[in-house]
Write a sequence for this structure.
């Protein structure tokens, strides 16, 4: 490491070839780039972290548009996507003898305010999934200006060869119901259904999403 004298245009900074110009406690200095041993074998912990991260990234990436709304205000100094990755890596991963798996019941598509609904249920009728819910306290919704929240519904397949289905910013929370068409299947599959609510007033607020359950769909 060597000290660097200031030139006409001030001290240099940043990477130049194999060296880096830095500053520490008002002292300008230059150091060589760290050497990365690409042949070093990864530890078991590093392999596990890579596998977990890759699996969750593969799972969430098709739903980036939803996540950007659902996690937009969840964590400071993080993008919505990174916040969703961090939350779901911590809460929605399982491991067994075969490796890591997604815990569908614990997946979150939105995080923020406590959910203000109860008794959410769904049923499949004529290739349409009908979802209903009740409000915990309608007066609280009015008092806290939450009546502008609209639905986030997503039906996610276990087999990524099949298409997902959903609606975003559709019915209002006060409507107490929502419906979506089931997607055309490539293969028979198990789907998982999620319900959340996003503010449509430009505040980027969201409520914690709920897992409503799974449904087996057969290819016709």
């Amino acid at each position: 490491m060597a000290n660097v004298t200031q030139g006409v245009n001030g001290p240099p900074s940043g990477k130049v070839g194999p060296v880096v110009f830095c500053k520490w406690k008002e002292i300008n200095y230059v150091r060589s780039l760290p050497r990365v041993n690409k042949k070093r074998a990864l530890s078991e912990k590093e392999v596990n972290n890579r596998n977990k991260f890759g699996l969750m990234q593969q799972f969430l990436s098709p739903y980036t548009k939803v996540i950007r709304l659902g996690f937009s205000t969840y964590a400071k100094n993080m993008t919505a996507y990174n916040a969703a990755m961090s939350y779901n890596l911590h809460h929605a991963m399982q491991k067994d003898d075969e490796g890591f798996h997604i815990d569908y019941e614990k997946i979150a598509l939105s995080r923020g305010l406590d959910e203000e609904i109860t008794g959410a249920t769904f049923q499949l009728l004529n290739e349409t999934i009908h979802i209903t819910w009740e409000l915990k306290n309608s007066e609280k919704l009015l008092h806290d200006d939450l009546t502008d929240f609209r639905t986030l519904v997503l039906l996610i397949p276990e087999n990524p060869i099949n298409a997902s289905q959903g609606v975003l910013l559709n019915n209002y929370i006060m409507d107490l119901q929502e419906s979506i068409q089931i997607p055309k299947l490539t293969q028979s599959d198990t789907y998982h259904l999620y319900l959340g609510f996003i503010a449509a007033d430009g505040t980027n607020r969201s409520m914690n999403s709920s897992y409503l359950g799974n449904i087996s769909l057969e290819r016709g």
